[in-house]
Amino acid sequence: MAQVRKDIEIYGNKPTEITYEFRDGRVLVHAWGIYPSHSVLAGQDVKQYVDSFDTVDQALSLYPEAEGSHPVLQPQNTFNHLSSAGEL
After folding, report:
1. Residue-by-residue pLDDT tens, the chain, 88 positions
2. pTM of the full structure
3. Rg of the chain taking only CA atoms, in angstroms
4. Cβ contact 66:59 at 8 Å
5. Bridge-partner residues for 27, per DSSP?
6. How far apart are CA 59 and CA 11, in angstroms?
7. What contacts 42, CB < 8 A, 6 or more positions away?
8. Using alpha carbons only, what angle is made at residue 46 by residues 41 and 50, rounded to the nearest 5 degrees?
9. What backbone torsions phi and psi does residue 86 show, to the nearest 5 degrees?
10. How many Cβ atoms sit within 10 Å of the Cβ of residue 46?
């Protein structure tokens, strides 16, 4: 069965970026956006799984705007803006 491109929204917004990466023998496509103001991670990057494929060519056939990525290159969320347990 042929895969179909999925409509992607992150908290009601279009993604800021689409990436693909290799993981466990598959090509995973992710959408990126920003956590909304009501989140404890407000303003930080959010990574959302979209789909997986056997090959990069298959992924790019449905998501031609996707750029290659790797977890080491991706933004990491921080929690240093939150209070420590003893500071509440």
Report:
1. 678 888 999 999 999 999 999 999 999 999 999 999 999 888 888 999 999 999 999 999 999 999 998 776 666 666 665 556 555 4
2. 0.79
3. 16
4. yes
5. 22, 53
6. 23
7. 35, 36
8. 150
9. -80, -5
10. 19
Q: What is the Cα–Cα distance from 45 to 37, expressed in whole angstroms?
A: 12
Burial environment of residue 45 by CB neighbours within 10 A (0 to 12, 13 to 18, 19 or more): middle
Q: Are 77 and 41 in contact (CB under 8 A)?
A: yes
Q: How many residues does the chain have?
A: 88
Helix (H, G, I), strand (E, B) or coil at 68: strand
Are residues 19 and 32 in contact, defined by beta-carbon separation less than 8 angstroms?
yes
